[in-house]
Amino acid sequence: MSVIAVLAHDGVPGHQLTAPGLAFGTAARHHHPVAYEVRICAAPGFRGTGGPAPFGVDLTWGPEGLDDADTVLLPGHTGFRDAPPPEAVAALRAAVERGARVGAVGTGTFTLAATGLLDGRRAATSRRHTCELAALRPRVDVDPEGRVVADGPFHSAAGVLGGIDLCLHLITLDHGEAVAIETERQLFLQLHDRPEEHGDGTGPQGDGPEAAYNAITPPGSSLGPVTAWMEAHLHRPLTLTEIAAHAGLGVRALTRRFRADTGLTPLQYLLRLRVQRAQRLLERTDDPVERIATHTGLGTPANLRHHFQRSTGTSPTTYRAAFRALVSGVTWPERAERVGAFTRTGTGTEMGPGPGSGPRRHSSS
Fold first, then answer.
1. Checking DSSP bridges between strand 154-157 and strand 149-151, what pairing results, if any?
2. Containing domain of residue 272, as a range?
């Protein structure tokens, strides 16, 4: 399990404090075998969060929480221009010396730069503070765009959406782009709260806790060829025997391999592929439900609605309407008429209607 330690200084914005738990927790909840432990560690002098809606919080970890962390995150805070406490500097230096990576969000880059660890390296901070950081720390090459910047073990970003972009960047490094994209979709399309478990111990789909996992094959898995073949033939009524034959395995051996690598049986994985394809078609096209049911291999609109409801907690029509309403609220007004799905380009994240460019999320600090 990868340990993420968030070092919170006094006056940290609340959304930057909670964003790592939301992002890494979502990745782990929906993807087998992703596993993260997120620790919120109080820097010396920490009392509570800052604006716009400050609140107090009781943290059980101090700087010692960084001692065995794989990743240390530095959110912004109100006193970012001040010299960081010596204990925090020592903990950060020790983490880097033993091979941990460090991420800074927004004005958290000022704190990281104050340790001298960024001297001679590229970094990003909030856009309105790029000139200030460049003047204060001339040995740091400050990226004026404020996108996610990686230089050695150091990763920094402008702080868009409370550092979610930086967290998705780190998830990509850990588990591949497919997991990051699906995690972003889960984060962005929170249509309503769904209980993690029912009273009988089953997951939201009623098929057991593993049913919440998305259909993602871990990088390097031997299942890659067969899952790619399944995805290319979703329009066909694939059977377990046919899948096993294509994989060159017996049914029992195939099932064991799928459970070990994806947390799902082959048929559960196939169903999740079909639902995920339906999501993308609802996001990117105006195809009617009847056509989407055919393209995804779910057959009839009734069958599509049934499985879509069990997997996502909402209907296809509601999903499409909610997605477009959400997208229109976070895209540039002059381009908001072009609604589409997530695509990644370089280190940034964009949304577009399939091929070509589409509306980009706001990237101001």
1. antiparallel
2. 189-323
Spatial contact of 67 and 98, defined as CB atoms under 8 Å apart: no
Compute the mean pLDDT over every residue in the chain, rounded to the nearest whole number. Answer: 84
Task: Give a yes or no: residue 19 inside a domain.
Answer: yes
Q: Strand ranges (DSSP E) for the chain?
A: 2-8, 36-42, 71-74, 101-105, 122-123, 141-142, 149-151, 154-157, 341-345, 348-352
Whether residue 15 contacts residue 162, with contact meaning beta carbons closer than 8 Å, is answered with yes
132 in a domain, yes or no?
yes
pLDDT at residue 150 is higher than 90: yes
In a shared domain, residues 21 and 159: yes
pTM for this entry: 0.73
Cβ partners under 8 Å of residue 91, min gap 6: 7, 63, 64, 66, 67
Percent of the chain with pLDDT over 90: 65
- Higher-confidence position of 163 and 251: 251
193 and 143 within one domain: no
